[in-house]
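Researcher: I'm preparing a figure for a lab meeting and need a structural model of a single chain. I don't have an experimental structure, so a prediction will have to do for now. The sequence is pasted below. Please return the structure as tokens so I can convert it later.
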Amino acid sequence: MVLLNGGGFDGPEWSVRISLANLDHEAYERIGRVLKEIGEEYHRRYTEATRVTDHS
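Model: Understood. Here is the structure written out token by token.
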């Protein structure tokens, strides 16, 4: 698996390109699940860190 900045592939600068090649079918499923979990965790942390609290 190769993880690269998406900006170098005419994608948004804050994107990621993941190259998966020649793996067993089961490996793609596992990689997909793990990447989804990681993305969800980053999103959870970001939303918690940037949550605006009402102090009125």
